Amino acid sequence: MIEDIKKTLWATADKLRANMDAAEYKHIVLGLIFVKYISDTFQTRRTELMRKFADSQDDYYLEDADQELIDEELEDRDYYKEVNVFWVPEAARWETLRAQAKQADIGKRVDDALSLIETENPKLKGILDKRYARVQLPDGKLGELVDLVSQIGFGESGNAEDRAKNHARDLLGQVYEYFLGQFASAEGKRGGQFYTPASIVKTLVAVLAPHHGQVYDPCCGSGGMFMQSEKFIEAHGGKLGDVSIYGQEANPTTWRLAAMNLAIRGIDFNLGREPADTFVRDQHPDLRADFVLANPPFNMSNWQHGSLEGDPRWVYGTPPQGNANYAWLQHMLYHLKPTGRAGIVLANGSMSSSQNSEADIRRAMIDADKVEVMIALPGQLFFNTQIPACLWFLVKEKRARQGEVLFIDARKLGSMISRVQCEFTDEVIDRIANTVAAWRGENASGEDYADIAGYCRSVTLIEIAEHGHVLTPGRYVGAEAVEDDDEAFADKMQKLTETLGEQMAKGAKLDQLLRSKLGDLGYEL
């Protein structure tokens, strides 16, 4: 079902898009999907309440209630709020919009519906993007899109097995993720500013294991880090209420997209008062998080501002004006609790750069034992750039393996999923996460850590200093073992020498025979 929905939606959306830029069209499509979702889930809850009111065995049973009382109870917003369902006014419900889809002013009607939804649900205030009245689509096309989105059913009907497979939030989440990925590919370079490939996010989450506490992303884009954290928590038997979500995003439209992405899943979140620059207008200055996950813009220039001189976040040195990589690293360290951990995606240059003050900052961070794990990634992971990337894992205070850093070279572990796109399989992600857990002494299986040539190695800070504080995994893990047998080198060399001697003797005999034959024919060599 989900694959059919995704393919139908994208094919038609791509056709309807015509000459509209994907960056604009993304919000048109996802906004309508959002309205359809909250309308469907509202109606599902309403239907469920009617059943409960009539069931004498149910705690919600209304004895001897007439229709007027039932209708009054159905309007009680608390019934919806208690199960994280948004209240949708009748004028904003999907069936009302669908009935008006062929009207010339359908764009204005959608905007009005969004305004009503925001008024009734303060959590959504300022989040919904009311741009439909001014959208540049040919006559009738927006109505066609409304009809198309109507094909998606987010209500929970059918048998128990179907409900389990197509749970409304999960279905919507998959549609959102699919569209974000497709739009990132269509937008090319610009698309990557809000979309981190799922396998990279999964790797960050698997290594950090955010079961509880506060999770923070200072450049959260559309909220992908939070989505994977949610899945991880649920997969490991936890509850969403065990974590608090904090984020920040500078782009206003992407900030709204992140809020919608979180709202549809019923996740409580705080994205700050407004979209804002993380360095200049930190929306969570007092936050000290248990986990930080982020994919900041690579090698961002023009980030500096006069107000950042002497900023308390620059504990290990003032970052250079031309590159924000070490500003991001220090910002994230600053926002960690003493027991906190951070996972960050950065360009490979961050591991070895010596320009400006970056080498000095990296040395200070290493000497202070703040770097826990470094992972080199394959190429072709991102939609928008071929710049090689890596994962940094930082700690505020190292609880295990003090004075060591774990290096993992995963450059050869990617799988091509298209001619231009690579990803990690779940098996590779599990291998990486288990390696880190074993190294930390936290592996549930009790498996001990061991260095593996060409893949992973635990290195002391002393050795890292000898290499000029460069953090490139390939420098430390060595070459992969080509063979794995117990045959002694001397014995193997003896056999190879004997074989070579035999081949040379055969070659000499063949040469002598060739000369003899040519001589018989009157040729001299």
Point out poorly predicted stretches: 157-166, 188-194
Write down how many β-strands occur, each being a DSSP E stretch of 2 or more residues. 11
Q: What value does the average pLDDT take?
A: 83
Query: Might you state the CATH topology name of the largest domain?
Result: Rossmann fold
Structural class: alpha/beta
| CATH domain class of the largest domain | Alpha Beta
CATH superfamily of the largest domain: Vaccinia Virus protein VP39
Rg, Cα atoms, Å = 30 Å
Question: Helical amount among residues, as a percent range?
Answer: 40-55%
What is the strand arrangement across the widest sheet? 3-2-1-4-5-7-6-8-11
Domain module count: 3
Sketch the major β-sheet: 9 strands, mixed
Distance between the first and last residues' Cα: 78 Å
Strand residues, percent: 5-15%
CATH architecture of the largest domain: 3-Layer(aba) Sandwich
Based on Cα principal axes, name the global outline.
Answer: globular
The tally of helices reads 18
Instruction: Give the SSE string.
Output: HHHHHHHHHHEHEHEEHEHEEEEEHEHHH
